[in-house]
Amino acid sequence: MSTSTGYQLEEPGISITELILEDVTFCDPNGAAEIREITRDGVVEDISNFEITWYYYENYEISTGPRVEFLNPGQYFVSARHIETGTESERKTFLLNDNTIRPVVDIIILNPNTSCDPLNPTGSIRAFVRGAYDEYNFDFIWFEGPSHDLKNIISFHTSSVSQLSAGIYTVEVRDFITGCHSLMSVYLPEEITQPQLNVEVQNSTDCQDNGEVQVVEILESGSIQDLNEYNFDFYNSENVLLAEGSTLFTQLSAGTYYVSATNIFTQCKSDLVKIDIINDYDTSGPSTNFTVIGPNPDFSRCENGPMTLEAQGGEYFRWYDARHEGELLHEGKAYTIENLQKSTSIWVSGYDPVCDLESDRKELSLKVISLPLITSVKADLEQAKITAEASGLIKWFLDDAELVGQNEQTIVAHTDGIYTVEVINGDCNESKSISFKGLSFSKPENIVKAPLIPNSTYQWSLNNQLIAHETFSTLNVSENGVYSVKIVFLEESEEVTKTHTLNYSIEVNDIETITGLPNSYEDPTIEIYPVPFDRFITINLDRTVQESVAVRMWDIRGHVKIDNKVMIKGDKVSLDIPELEKGIYFLEVIYSQGSFMSKIIK
User: Fold this and answer.
1) What is the pLDDT of residue 491?
2) Calpha distance 357→243 (Å, rounded)
């Protein structure tokens, strides 16, 4: 920026009446001064009539003429001599200011050096010029060390450098426009992590050398690493390299060994891990500490069916017929008997085929279960009971929904439907069904009913007192009071199984006028059609809504088939439900005004 200053040079009557100064703004000096007007004895004369001399300090002549340029900041002098008369003015001083702005540099560490390989370090740093919007206006020169010694230059013309080892680095930043430059140094640290090994050791366990060492895990800075990123070296007790590369070392005899790992990328090497292989082979032969797993704990099987036995706790076994002089039947971990027709006994022993040694034999008694498991299923309509004559574990189902907790041969029928008994004995399974009709409308006025949900348990209470043995969705009411039911059911999907609990209650003041539980899932004001449906079903609500509602559907086993959000605008919505097998399902809709569940059929 230019400034104007007037000087009066009184001796010998010469005055410099207009002197323009231009302060220094570049590091490549750009200061200037210019005389625009000189008077002699009060009269302005042509500047060409004067010889003008410029000085740095008082005696160092730097230029002549009315204008001088390329000046650094500092103190200067000027004088004017009239050419014709030789009259010269006094030397007068003026000051050029330093208005240069040098770049302010910051250095950040992008990555410390994490490599143990001196030829492939991984450190990186970057320089920033504060307030600079365009780094292309600056030149960057990087030096190794704390100074800008030209012998130590490592990079030109880039704001960042990489592949650096730990140490001090210096950057010189030069402004292309002003020529100004700055220096900044930084220390790049080193963060080298030594791998830590976890190994598994298998001692030599047979008459031949079969000890093994397996590297199963590598940690760096507490984090588990990929084993494929390491090379492994295996040494004997005399530090002789035996093998390299693999994580598994086999066929080892008893002795002391060492293993180490080297990171392929950083070349950082772990400490040697000491390993002792012991020959703990028992010359007495395989142990009898093994177990045999059958189709069930008592080794029973349906008649005329196969039975598979599997020995656990060893690698090799022998199977014998205990009733035919110990005839060898099979060698191996598993043995399958086809068409087992009668109960029998077999022997099994552990066997070492390498050393040809055998353990003591264990005897197993195999049991054949005769069919049928269910002799009969009978219904007593007058007593509202169903009885199954069967042998085995019993489960009851109503319309394919399990009656949880009903495991007796005789149950009470609380409602019409298809009752199925399933009997399990060992690995035998048999089921029979019976249709029960004529009960639903016998005494509807003194029955309270909860939602029928598959895979659920029901617990009834009267005035907060538990009613024993009432585990169905319906309850015969014999007195007034507050009846409550707690329903616990499972929601199963491929990812997770959730347990839900529902609670309902009703106050009964007149057992002749019971209409059902409030907030029941089976809401009579909701209409769902068609029944059965093929692909599309329509839900008619009892009111107009405009909101997103939750729609879920279970099958009779409690598996979730649909769990979606559906937007309803009005009093009905149509759902597209493809890819479902034919059967019975339960549809639940939850919205701001309530929720309901209904049984639907495809």
Assistant:
1) 58
2) 32
State whether CATH 3.10.129.10 applies to domain 105-188. Answer: no
User: In one letter, which amino acid is 461?
Assistant: S
In terms of Cβ atoms closer than 10 Å to its own Cβ (0-12, 13-18, 19+), residue 336 is exposed
Query: How many Cα atoms occupy the beta-carbon half-sphere of 334 within 13 Å?
Result: 6
Query: Residue 423: CB partners within 8 Å, gap ≥ 6?
Result: 373, 374, 388, 390, 391, 392, 393, 394, 395, 429, 430, 431
Say whether pLDDT at 232 is over 60: yes
In angstroms, rounded to a whole number, what is the distance separating the alpha carbons of residues 91 and 14?
12
Helix (H, G, I), strand (E, B) or coil at 531: coil
**For a pLDDT cut of 90, what percent of the chain falls above it?**
17
Question: What's the chain's average pLDDT?
Answer: 80
Tell me: cis bond preceding 518? Omega within 30 of 0 counts. Answer: no
Share of the chain above pLDDT 70, in %: 84
CATH level 2 (architecture), domain 444-513: Sandwich (2.60)
Torsion, CA 393, CA 399, CA 405, CA 407, rounded to 10:
-30
Listed as own residue / partner, the contacts of 378-384 with beta carbons closer than 8 Å and 24 or more positions apart are: 378/434, 379/413, 379/419, 379/434, 379/436, 381/436, 381/438, 381/439, 384/412, 384/413, 384/414, 384/439
Residue 68 pLDDT > 80: yes
Compute φ and ψ for 321, nearest 5 degrees: -85, 115
* Token representation of residue 448: 């309270």
The whole-number pLDDT of residue 48 equals: 92
3-state secondary structure of 227: helix
What are the distances in angstroms from CA 377 to CA 27, 397, 431, 434?
109, 13, 10, 7
Q: Which CATH architecture has domain 291-369?
A: Sandwich (2.60)
Q: What is the pTM of this model?
A: 0.38
Tell me 134's DSSP state: -
